[in-house]
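Example (one chain per record):
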Amino acid sequence: MALKGQKFNKYNNSIKEEVLDQYLKGVSSWYLEKIYGIPYKTIQTWGRKVKHPELYPGQGLKKGRPKDSELTKEDYKERYEILKKYQAFLKAQRERK
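Predicted structure:
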């Protein structure tokens, strides 16, 4: 978890590709840390994301809730059904007490 005021390093794509190339060839992340000054955990994370992209969907795609202008009529209907079910659930919870 990030700490308040924490600064994050951004690495140049060319350096990142060079480090990843060496890491994927079998060079230790600890050794690469000493050479490039990039934390070994960061190098391992990059390698994991390259080796298993299916575990990290949506990298580089839009994140968060869709804007209201992007919602369709079916989306609104689905939201309405979810709200109706939730209201019924809350009503049942109140009646139990």
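Caption: Residues 10-59 form one domain.
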